[in-house]
Amino acid sequence: MPTWNLLADHYGKIPHNELVTIAKVDCTKETPLCAKQNIRAYPTSTCSSSRLGHSMDYN
């Protein structure tokens, strides 16, 4: 199982976890969203924060 799926499973089991959301997006189907996030290669991981008001690329 890919690491991202394990991470999503882990956080999905934490009751009332409102601080972290792990999401998987199919950019072949959600092209406007991926364009807005400047996703140009796959896989890509980003970190978004509502407190910061923007997203950051994960290196």
UniProtKB/TrEMBL annotation:
N-terminal signal peptide: none
Top-level taxonomic group: Eukaryota
SUPFAM superfamilies in alphabetical order: Thioredoxin-like
InterPro entries, per database record: Thioredoxin-like_sf, Thioredoxin_domain
Domain Thioredoxin: 2-44
Protein name: Thioredoxin domain-containing protein
UniProt organism field: Porites lobata
Phylogenetic classification of the source organism: Eukaryota, Metazoa, Cnidaria, Anthozoa, Hexacorallia
